[in-house]
Every structure is written in C-alpha cells, then in structure tokens.
Amino acid sequence: MPLLDVEGFPLHYLDEGQGLPVLLFHAYPLGAEQFRPQLEALSGRFRFLVPDGRGFGLSGEADGPTEMTRLARDGLALLDALGIEQAVVGGVSMGGYAALALVREDASRVKGLVLSDTQARADSPEARQGRQAAAETAETQGPEAVLAAMLPKMVAASASDEVKDAIATLIRQARPSGIAAAQRGMALRHDARELLARFSGPSLIVVGDQDAITPPDVARGLADLVPGSRLEVIAGAGHLPNLERPEAFNAALASFLEALQG
Length: 262
What we know:
The protein is an alpha/beta fold. The protein contains eleven helices and eight strands.
C-alpha cells in the first residue's frame, strides 16, 4: 500500500503500469479505485498515478475544506516524489477541477490534459449553498445518505447493477469528514475558463451523452475554449463514463495518450 508523506499527511496512491505517466484525479465522492477499468486495460502501455483524495479511499483524514489547489499540490508532490518531471494530467468531475487547479499551479508539468464530465465555471451562490447543505448531510447522516442522493444523478438510466454496486462501494469507503471537506473545497474553486483558454497543450474533453450533472453542452463549451482540443461523447453513459462505458472511454483515452507517447 504506497503512502506518500505530504507535509505530514498520508497520501495513498496507485502506481501501476509503465510508459507515459498519467496522473488522474477521481470524482466526488469516490476514490482512486474509480479508475480500475483503465488500469486493468491500459497499464501495459501507460503508467497510471492515481491518488486517493483527502478523506477518501486509503488516504488520511481531511482537515478543513479540501480546496482544489490542495488536491493539485498533492498531485505535484506525488510527481516530485517519483521523479516525474511531466505527465498527462486528468480527472473526472471533481477530479477535473483538481486537474485545472494543477494547470494553474504549474502548467509546465502538464504534457496533456484530460477533462471528463466536469466544468470550468466557478459555483454560483446557489450552488455553493447546495454544497454546504450536502456537506452537513454527510456530517450528520454519513455516506449512505450521500449515496442515496448522488447515485441516481451519477449514472445513466441504463447503468448495470454491477456498475452501481461498484460506485456504492467506493462512496461507502469515504469518511463523512472527507465528503464534507470536498464539498466545501469545491465551493471555493476559481473560475478556470480564462486559464483553460490559455492552455496550449493537447487536450481531450470527454462526456457521457446522458450526463445530467455536466451535460454535453458544457463539455462542448470546454472544447471551444481550447484550440485543437478533442471532444469525445460517450454513448449510453452518464456522469461517470469511465465506469459505465469503460471500453469506449478506454479507446478514447488510449488514442489520445498514444499520440503523446512518442
């Protein structure tokens, strides 16, 4: 179980595969194992580095709002510890916010950017209020209440019981404090549209065609911000296409990574 000490914080991470380094940030309220379908299918060609966010998976307890900058710096600390100068950086949903925060922290470390089912806009006042309410629900009622509220929104109506069970297992592994800290941290994130428009590296934008949280039109808006970016719409998937339609997601990801490998 690899653990990295980040200024006294125990950061758990997965380090699997070989080749081009790919740093991935998971969605809320899941964990690094969200990317198991990608690791199993693609680690023969690429090296995946996937940290558990603070309060999620096997990482330590969250302390205060988990701002996206904090997640980004954890990712940079992981690259530093492993002696990796540059990596493809990506994430799903909240993980996309963390990936954008890493670009803001040090774009020179980003060989390519993968944003799946996420957005660049900051939260509206109403959205921030909703996050505070969700944080309080996690603290008072625990992960089961979060699971009941989130799961129907996260997947397409056609999602299999196997996929739903995998997501439920990941949510149940999160600590209430980690869930609450992530919600409060997401509420504090900066608008990243101007940042993304300035990013000059290769970019892959992915979205499930049935995503009800960040719909395809949001993904198209992201793609429009980045000249030369590639947009992949995954049929039959909701907010978590890497779990719902892993073969299609893997094909899009592998094609993008292969172009950067050489």
